[in-house]
Amino acid sequence: MADTDVQLQPKQPRKKGLTRRQKRSLSRGIQYVVFVAAVIAFAVAADWGRLQNQFAQGDIAEQMFPDVITLALKNTVLYTLSGFVVGLVLGMVIALMRLSSVGPYRWLAGIYIEIFRGLPALLIFIFIGVAVPLAFPGTEIPGGTYGKVALALGLVAAAYMAETIRAGIQAVPKGQMEAARSLGFSPARAMISIIIPQAFRIILPPLTNELVLLFKDSSPALFLGVTLEERELSKFGRDLASQTANSTPILVAGLCYLLVTIPLGFVVRRMEAKAQEAVK
Question: Are 67 and 260 spatial neighbours (Cβ–Cβ below 8 Å)?
Answer without folding.
Answer: no
